[in-house]
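BUG: 3D viewer hangs when loading the predicted structure for this chain

Environment: internal workstation, default settings.
Expected: structure renders.
Actual: progress bar stalls at 90%.

Input used:
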Amino acid sequence: MSAGGSADGAAAGAVSSTMLLALGIVGGLICIYLSGFLGDLIGPVIAAIGAVLAIIWGSDAIRRVASYGLGTGVPSIGYMSLSVGVISALAGLSLATVFKIGLLGPIAGFVVAVIIGAIIAIVATKIVGMKIPIMLQCTVEIAGAAMLSILGFSVAIAGSYDMMAIYEHVVATGFIAVLFIMCTMAIQHPFNACLGPNEDQVRTLKCAASTAFLSMTLTGLMSVTTGGLGWFIVFIVGLIGWIVSFRAFVLASCNDAASTRWAGLWPNVEE
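Structure tokens produced before the viewer hung:
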């Protein structure tokens, strides 16, 4: 049964889930890899855009799998998948360091995320007994999106996907914990915010874009610690993206609503 859309999730949407998957994986990886060749000024913003693409993809996967229930499992699968994302990103970069192949890191991390996500989904369906037909596919997708979003923002902060740079600027500083919470909220919030009988995929994706760019804005502020002007470009691009996407989301919400009314601010005196 579905409370937030059709039973298959994708059928009611106007955007192909396959296109979003390709955009998240290919776009996310390409942006992360390109960042290593574009210098300290442009590289970070490209890596952050890769994370934005991954978040939008992950939000759509959350929408599809959570549409089979009442939406109560969104936080659970969100935090679980982002835990997989953090572990996978660091594991992939560590493997690249061990084998001394720097370019291996992002792809290795993505593969690890897919494998762990598949194992979790198999346990959930075969042992726990969750009867969700697309559980395997969506859990794998969310885990992959989580890994790419964590790594993309980490690269934006550190300026590189080298393990030592990530450790110094993201892990040792504690920013990894901020990214964990921030990316979790960015991926899981859109469907929770739009959940309801008239939930619409396009409107949900507009909300996902706004949470992704807001996360990018905060990432720009965190990357101040690495020096240079790259942080400012990440911050400005993220801020502009958030303003545009959030405005689009608000307009879509108003257009889809039966009516809207300004209710005023909360009272100054406690009752």
